[in-house]
Amino acid sequence: MRSISVTMFVTLDGVVQGLGRPDEDTRGGFAHGGWGPRYNDEVMGREMAKGMANAGHMLFGRRTWEDFLRAWGRATDGNPFTEHMNAATKYVASRTLDDVDAWQNSILLRGEAAETVAELKARPGGDLAINGSASLVQSLHAAGLIDRYTLLIHPLTLGAGRRLFEGPAPLTEFDLTGSVTTPKGVIIAHYNRR
Asked: What is the Cα 61 distance to its own chain's centre?
C-alpha cells in the first residue's frame, strides 16, 4: 500500500490560504495573500529539496493543480523544483475537470477524492506527496488517509483565511519524527500518524 505525505505552509493560527501571491486565493475576501515568501531562506530551501528528493508521485486537488500548472508547468528555468514537478506523475482529484492534458504526466482521478484516492493508495506503486491542496488534505484527513505531515509553521497570525484543520475530522494522534527551525523563525515539523 502506498503512503500519503502532506507538506503544508501554515501560520501560527492555522491559516494555509494564499501563501505565495496576493492574487493566489482571494476566496472569502481574503486580503493577506503572499504572506509566505518573506520567510524563505537557505535552510527552508534545503529542507524542501530533501522532501522533493524523497517524493514519489504527486497528488493535487483541482485548484492547486491549476495554480501549479501556471507557475511550474510551462517554466523552463533549470530550477530543480521545476524539473521535478514536470517529470513527476501528477494525480489530480477533481469532480469538475474533464481532462488534465495541459500538464505532462498528469492523471485525472475523477469523482469524490476520498474514494478515488483510497483506491489509488491501495494499488501498488510509488508513494504520494501532496503540496498545498488544503481542501483535498481536509477530505483525506477526515477519511484517515494521510500518513505523514510536514508542516512549515510560520511565525505570524493572520486572523482570517482558510485553516488547515476545518470541519469534521477524526481524533488522530501523530509522533513528531523531526524538526528544524529556520533563521527566519519557521519551524519545519515532521509528523507520522500513529
From this structure: 9
